Amino acid sequence: SAKNRENKEKNEGKADDKNTKGYVLQFGVFSSKSGAKTLLNQLEKDGIDAKIQEDDGSYKVISDVIDTKEEALKQLEKLKDENNIDVFIDAVD
């Protein structure tokens, strides 16, 4: 029915849907928030968007969620080449 189709389209358009998996670039993990903030400030100076995510008492400095692994790998390579940053990919769900 048209109503079912409408609901299906609505659900597919949700980026924050719980089953949507994506990837983040992880720049570092710290036991203190101040360590994470220091790295975050350095990244921002280099024009790199990042944020701090608290995770079980540790502080991860990560990028925004990237939809595909291919795109995440592209960004990772670019950061390694252009900014000489040690970074790796972390899957999120």
How would you describe the overall organization of this protein?
This protein has a 4-stranded antiparallel β-sheet with strand order 2-3-1-4, with helices on one face. The longest helix has 15 residues, at 69-83. The protein has 3 helices and 4 strands. With 93 residues, the chain is of the alpha+beta class. It has helices at 2-12, 33-45, 69-83; strands at residues 22-30, 51-55, 58-62, 88-92.
**Strand percentage:** 25-35%
Principal-axis shape equals globular
Secondary-structure content class: alpha+beta
Order of helices and strands: HEHEEHE
Span of the ends, CA to CA = 31 Å
Count of helical regions: 3
Number of strands: 4
* Helix content percent band: 40-55%
Flag low-confidence runs: 4-17
Radius of gyration: 16 Å
Q: Largest sheet, described in full?
A: 4 strands, antiparallel
Task: Estimate the mean pLDDT confidence.
Answer: 84
Strand order of the largest sheet: 2-3-1-4
Summary?
This protein is 42% helix and 26% strand.
Features:
single chain; 93 residues; alpha+beta; 3 helices; 42% helix; 26% strand
Summarize the topology.
Blueprint: H1 2-12, E1 22-30, H2 33-45, E2 51-55, E3 58-62, H3 69-83, E4 88-92
Antiparallel strand pairs: 1-3, 1-4, 2-3
